[in-house]
Amino acid sequence: MNTLFLSRHSGRSPSRWHCVSLPPTDYRKIWQLQKELVAARKDRRVAADTVLIVEHHPVFTFGRRGGIENLTIPQTFLEKSGIGLFQVERGGSITFHGPGQLVVYPILDLQSAGLRVTDYVNRLEEIMLRTAADWGIAARRRSLNRGIWVGLKKMGSIGIAVRRGIAFHGSALNVDLPLDPFTWIHPCGLKGIQATSMAMESDQTVSIDTVRTSIKRHMEEIFEVRLEPVDLPALQRFFGKESAA
């Protein structure tokens, strides 16, 4: 295990995070949920941090500084194909999300967690690196761009936002999905870069559910937390009670 991420709180009980695992879900719905969680966490209407682990219906997103110029096909093609296109608050340029990719959205109070932004991003990368290693994939970081790489191909991306000290958005790991949509963009604004997936890089069977379990395990190790499963309806009821209070 990388000693950079060994416990800083030896002897303490781990913090508890809510963990919501979702099937392919509309991007706009999760985007709105994140913003609600950020506000609730900052106002202390929610005492615990929350992580959403989700697949999305096909969608392209680009960051607060732009990135639509790195879309290499007409927007009308996306409209006809029913593929969404959103500009959001996160850092980074354009990327693709779709079924077969696991997106991890921690809604995390950085100050309470004792983390700087760079420390936090390093941990998100480490989760993906360890997950890839579980399938014998020797992924690595590259100074060219945050995320994880196999050779010159990008397998996992990171783009976060911080609002009033609360981090949201997060990481996206290509597990087993068609890679054609990545050829319709310059991924993360990088020309001449190809995307890859765990299924492409491993000689083992790659199951989305098994990868999800691996991500959760490594998140608990790296952030020194315990993930408590909560389903979305329960989380929404919880917010209703908090709001009524």
Q: What is the gyration radius calculated from CA atoms? A: 17 Å
Series of H and E elements = EHEEHEEEHHEEEEEHHEH
Overall 3D geometry? globular
**Fraction of helical residues:** 25-40%
How many DSSP H or I helices?
A: 7
Mean pLDDT figure: 91
Short structural description:
This protein has 245 residues and is of the alpha/beta class. It is built from 7 helices and 12 strands.
Textual characterization of the structure:
This protein is an alpha/beta fold. Helix content is 32%, strand content 30%. The chain is built from seven helices and twelve strands. Strands 1, 2, 6, 7, 8, 9, 10, 11 and 12 form a nine-stranded mixed beta sheet that branches. It has a three-stranded mixed beta sheet with strand order 4-3-5, with helices on one face. Helix 1 links the parallel strand 1 and strand 2. Helix 4 crosses helix 6. The longest helix is centred in the middle third of the chain and has 18 residues. 38% of the residues are buried. The C terminus is likely disordered.
